[in-house]
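Running low. Any example?
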Amino acid sequence: MDLQHLKAANQMENLDCNDILQCMLGVNELDTRIILSIEKNPKNIQEIAQEISRDRTTVQRALSKLLAMNIIHRKAKSTGKGRKYIYHAITREQLTHILLEDLDKCYRRIRGQIMHLK
């Protein structure tokens, strides 16, 4: 989370799920749409691209980023022509845990800096 996101979130009256994910995880709107798309119904890349109306390459880049962040994971599924990857989001409980840990770290850092102002 960067300072700009923190200031923006602090000034918002009605934070929604997308706002929180974008602020706390540093993801963008596309990333958030992907996470929410596969949260309850795992999908392959073509299904995700079709559902969110984006091209496959754009979705692939976003998936790579989310995989590196450990927010999603994939499982290989064998097909007659090779294999497809099915993408799954982490559970809400896991995501909540990550967000609360990050929030606590941020709070401690900011509180420490404020204490140095005395």
